[in-house]
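Slack export, channel: ligand-projects

TW: morning all. Re-posting the request from yesterday since it got buried. We need the structure predicted with the small molecule present, not the apo form. The ligand is nicotinamide-adenine-dinucleotide; the SMILES is in the block with the sequence. No rush, but it would help planning for next week.
GE: picking it up
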Amino acid sequence: MRIGIAGAGRIGSMHAENTSTLDEFDDILIYDPAPDRAARLAQAVGAEATEDLDHLLTADAVLICTPTDTHPELVRRAIKAKVPALCEKPLAPSLAEMRTLVPEIEASDVPVTVGFHRRFDPATVELHRRLRAGEVGRVYQVHAVCNDFEPPPGEFIATSGGLFRDCLIHDLDAIPWLLDEPVTEVYASGSVLVDEAFADIGDWDNVTATLRFPSGAQALLSASRHDPVGYDCRTILYGSKDTLAAGLDPRTPVNSLEPDGPRPASPYRGFQDRYRLAYLNELKAFAAIASGGAGNPSPAEASLRSLALAEACEQSVRSGLPVRLA
Ligand SMILES: NC(=O)c1ccc[n+]([C@@H]2O[C@H](COP(=O)([O-])OP(=O)(O)OC[C@H]3O[C@@H](n4cnc5c(N)ncnc54)[C@H](O)[C@@H]3O)[C@@H](O)[C@H]2O)c1
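GE: finished. pasting the full token output, ligand included:
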């Protein structure tokens, strides 16, 4: 398969390196409007660089790895050219834009997968399987942590859409997917403790959110733009039959103070490292979807829910009140 990559920044570079190692992809074409960026990445991974979006869309499938506010236009260009797309999350910067875009995608019959990589992460997928199989019993609580090792670069922060839409959205997608229940209420809180630059754009760098589900299960989520020990993303699920965790291993960046407790020698340093297998699985699954026939584990329609929750969390922080979901 000839794969096109739009955007040669952090995630585009990682996907380019990964596609170059997978048998599913024969040729790679890279497009980025920033001078030399596509050319440099293409040289590093043995790909072809282009400055022409129409040429990129001659590929068999495309990865959209550009700033979030450019996703809707690029997705529309891809579906118009009938090129299956894997679009990074979130699919659109706002719920209003996503509500216009999703019906267009569905009417097009062109597969669009959203880059919620947790849906391809082996431990998270196993958690999903065990929940469906009834092995966890009745779900009582979920605790989820999503901490960056270091804040992202300044130029990214301005285009990120904020901590809820950029980071916590992974949990806002994964937890209702795991529990197979819609969220009925969110209550969120935010602070600026790392860098005033976040306050300058009306964002927070440390947030928490509680989610309530119709069954009575509750989830407690937190995210931070800085964790001095490493990149910490984990989900712990407490049920009536078992307590299970995804993201808890000898590299989890937590220094235990117990005599025999873990003190990781090489803690995870970033999303590329922590979710290496998830990103590879995501690309393999996308190749199968784009080639025809395979089911889409992260469809555009499903991502309406996580963005609605991210916006509800922002509303809750600003109002100081819980927000009920329709
Ligand atoms: N799934 C994940 O774990 C994950 C991780 C990081 C980022 N992301 C998402 O990926 C997207 C990109 O994030 P990033 O960190 O790589 O950003 P980045 O700023 O590092 O890179 C974005 C790149 O896109 C280029 N670009 C800008 N407009 C473009 C256009 N119209 N066409 C083609 N290229 C264009 C920029 O020149 C830049 O090279 C965001 O939507 C972000 O939310 C997802």
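GE: first-pass observations. The chain has a mean pLDDT of 97. Residues 163-179 form the longest helix (17 residues).
TW: perfect, thank you
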